[in-house]
Design a protein that fits this description.
23% of the residues lie in helices and 28% in strands. It is α/β, with parallel strands linked by helices. The longest helix is centred in the middle third of the chain and has 17 residues.
Length: 351
């Protein structure tokens, strides 16, 4: 995946201002699109920067050219907006997607990054012919609440599944990833940049995915359930729809090739089976459930001790909790499938 900003002779960089965007929250959704900045087309990896305020934007890109192309698009902090898109020689295709622009642009408690919107057109043979960015403040939102396995990770090779999810969605839904490294169900409620910031942004009809467990290592069953219940009730009070997500597994194997029932499956230091509590709470509170623990366990055990290393940072960092780009991409696809199969988002929004 190409980084959001690079330097070097093969890179074209450009800056353009989008007019009439002083207040994105009340910006006209039908405002004229901003054209591609000067130099923001070509056949080398291209970074396009738009001077826009935080908000929601619809991006329309015309991809292709005289030669065959294979183009990917990332936005802001390494968010995958468009998977590898092939174009035949002499042919062009138009792709649209929605980008959430915020400050900080990655993890809510992390570094700010650059203001505005950065789009990177990369891939094996990138071809960008034209590009427009239009404010879309009334677009429905898909909020992500979670930890480091979900968040927009700043540095490669670390990649959260929330970072890869946007590529599976068409224009018309804004993925607002407010997951943050190191957060438990309690700290996510306590940190001003996290739930206190997310809650007032939720509008009627928005969907909010909650995956918090990896850092609840010493949280009691009662406190864990109470924290998740607080979030569920608050999201509903704002008119949003909460969706509980059980945590991705850690890559810890028993000698028989199955995953360890404690560490891998998120039973914490007090003996609380956190995924089991999420399932129970989903049933009790009538909340939709995405059981990533079951889905990722099946995938990791299917690949086995050696094959599953590619999903995590085992070889690079001796890390069996955080996912590689491949692992995050596969796990994001599982979330996509669950959202589609449970009709939690309209079918037209899936790419």
């Amino acid at each position: 995946m190409s980084p959001a900003r690079r330097t070097g002779p093969a890179l074209l960089t450009a800056v353009a201002a989008v007019t009439a965007l002083a207040t994105p929250a009340v910006a006209d959704a039908a405002a004229a699109p901003a054209p591609a900045p000067t130099g923001c087309t070509g056949t080398a990896p291209v970074v396009c920067h738009f001077d826009v305020a935080p908000g929601t934007y619809r991006v329309t890109a015309r991809i292709g050219g005289a030669a065959e192309g294979r183009t990917t698009v990332t936005a802001e902090t390494r968010r995958a907006m468009l998977g590898e898109t092939p174009t035949a020689a002499g042919r062009q295709v138009v792709r649209t997607f929605t980008v959430n622009v915020r400050e900080p642009e990655g993890e809510p408690t992390g570094a700010s990054g650059s203001p505005g919107l950065d789009l990177t057109f990369g891939g094996p043979a990138p071809l960008l012919a034209d590009l427009h960015v239009t404010p879309a403040p009334r677009t429905p939102q898909l909020f992500l609440i979670g930890d480091s396995t979900v968040c927009d990770q700043l540095g490669s090779p670390y990649t959260g599944w929330g970072q890869e999810l946007p590529q599976y969605l068409r224009a018309g839904i804004s993925v607002a990833n407010y997951a943050d490294s190191g957060e438990s169900s309690q700290t996510y409620l306590d940190q001003p940049q996290l739930f206190p910031t997310v809650r007032p942004l939720i509008r009627r009809g928005d969907t909010v995915l909650i995956q918090l467990a990896h850092n609840d290592k010493q949280t009691t069953e009662a406190d864990y359930r109470a924290n998740l219940t607080t979030m569920i009730d608050a999201i509903r009070a704002e008119g949003g729809r909460p969706v509980l997500v059980t945590p991705i597994v850690r890559r810890w194997f028993n000698t028989d090739g199955t995953l360890d029932n404690g560490t891998a499956l998120l039973v914490n230091g007090l003996g609380v089976d956190l995924p089991a509590q999420v399932r129970l709470l989903a049933a009790e509170k009538d909340v939709p459930l995405v059981d990533l623990t079951v889905l990722t366990r099946q995938r990791v055990e299917e690949l086995g001790p050696e094959g599953s290393k590619a999903l995590y940072l085992t070889d690079e960092k001796r890390d069996n909790t955080h996912t590689s780009e491949r692992g995050a991409t596969e796990y994001a696809a599982m979330v996509r499938d669950a959202l589609r199969d449970q009709h939690l988002l309209p079918g037209r929004l899936f790419r």
